[in-house]
Amino acid sequence: xxxxxxxxxxxxxxxxxxxxxxxxxxxxxxxxxxxxxxxxxxxxxxxxxxxxxxxxxxxxxxxxxxxxxxxxxxxxxxxxxxxxxxxxxxxxxxxxxxxxxxxxxxxxxxxxxxxxxxxxxxxxxxxxxxxxxxxxxxxxxxxxxxxxxxxxxxxxxxxxxxxxxxxxxxxxxxxxxxxxxxxxxxxxxxxxxxxxxxxxxxxxxxxxxxxxxxxx
Length: 216
Prior knowledge:
The chain is an alpha/beta fold. The protein has helices at 17-28, 42-51, 68-78, 92-102, 114-125, 133-143, 157-167, 172-179, 183-196, 202-211; strands at residues 8-13, 33-39, 56-59, 83-88, 106-109. It has 10 helices and 5 strands, in the order βαβαβαβαβαααααα. Strands 2-1-3-4-5 form a 5-stranded parallel beta sheet, with helices on both faces. Helix 4 links the parallel strand 4 and strand 5. Helix 2 (42-51) runs parallel beside helix 3 (68-78) and helix 8 packs across helix 9 (183-196). The longest helix is centred in the last third of the chain and has 14 residues, at 183-196. It is globular. The mean pLDDT is 88.
């Protein structure tokens, strides 16, 4: 529980300046919350995370380079006490459950209301989870072993990250550089993705990701 007299320190990570500005304006109207830093991508996020006292990170999934999902575990490994609130254009059905499993404290879409955003920030800052009714239903369905999960749920977190990067048209070499892995390792991940999802080509990965709205 945060000290009642202490402001909740928020960091906003989103590659759209207009979105960051809008979020900052919303938060600036709250006496108990303040934006202490902003980031355009994962690199800037970690620089601020190391050098700044942060309670809550508002994290977009669709970032240049590493996506938000791929950053959650790394953030928690560096600052496990920091709460991560995902704020995405993607619906809860697509990424929310995976985000929570990775260590996020909550998931909101960018169509949420101002009141809902502030409520979520306050709740996760207290060490609690923020669960929307849609996400609660998704969790209940996930517990039901008879539910037919989407095929990409078979992928590991790293495979999911590589799949999304492939779906955005990145080459094995580009992905290897961004993830600090060898091209051979990325090629291995690609083969696993194709095998698990019963696909044959990268083009089919792209079509699947677009169909399931996993990429913008």
